[in-house]
Amino acid sequence: MSFLSPPFAYVNVNFSPKVCLEVVNNFATADPAVTNVFFQQYFLSILQDIFFVLTDADHKSGFKLQSALLARLFQLVELNVIAQPLYDPCDMGRKDLIS
Fold first, then answer.
1. Residues of the chain predicted below pLDDT 50
2. HEC string for 18-77
3. Using an 8 Å Cβ cutoff, are 38 and 30 in contact?
4. In terms of C-beta density within 10 A (0-12 exposed, 13-18 middle, 19 or more buried), how is residue 7 classed?
5. Which residue from 16, 29, 20, 37 is spatially nearest to 76, judged by alpha carbons?
6. What range defines the domain where residue 73 resides?
7. C-alpha dihedral sign at 59, 63, 66, 67
8. Cα(94)–Cα(99) distance, rounded to whole angstroms?
């Protein structure tokens, strides 16, 4: 899955969101155990990369696909497709991680 990181390389920004959306949709309909592992690993990075590109003043192309991907990620959370925490529960309460 290293080809998704970062999923929005400026070199091919019109292609990457489409591929990323397809991968997200494929994993969303996979076995729940596989779905949860995938999203625990990649959901927050994809979300962070989407917001990075969408808020970049110099970046204009690919807005429609990036917005569709962002909407799909929110929809998966809303529909409870992502049923596991996206963080390590062992880290809860560790004050050294909160700063």
1. 7-15
2. HHHHHHHHHHHCCCHHHHHHHHHHHHHHHHHHHHHHHCCCCCCCCHHHHHHHHHHHHHHH
3. yes
4. buried
5. 29
6. 2-97
7. positive
8. 10
Indicate the pTM of the whole model: 0.73
Residue 85, helix vs strand vs coil? coil
Q: What is the pLDDT of residue 28?
A: 95
CA angle 34, 36, 41 (to 5 degrees): 100
User: Of 93, 95, 69, 77, whose CA–CA distance to 40 is shortest?
Assistant: 77
Task: Match 């004050």 to its residue by tokens.
Answer: 95
pLDDT number for residue 8: 42
- Determine the pLDDT at residue 14: 42
Q: Is the peptide bond between 6 and the residue preceding it cis, with omega within 30 degrees of 0?
A: yes
Contact present, 83 and 36 (Cβ < 8 Å): yes
Radius of gyration of the chain, Cα coordinates, nearest whole angstrom: 14
Total domains in the fold of the chain: 1
